[in-house]
Amino acid sequence: MEANDSVDARVRRRLRELRTEQGLTLQQVAERASIDVSTLSRLESGKRRLALDHLPRLAAALGVSADALLGAAPAPDPRIHAKPVTRHRLTMWPLTNRGPAAGLHTYKVRVHADRDTPPDELPVHDGHDWLYVLSGRLRLILGEEDLIVEPGEAVEFSTLVPHWFGAVDGPVELIGIFGPQGERVHLHR
Question: Contact 60/32 with Cβ under 8 angstroms?
Answer without folding.
Answer: yes
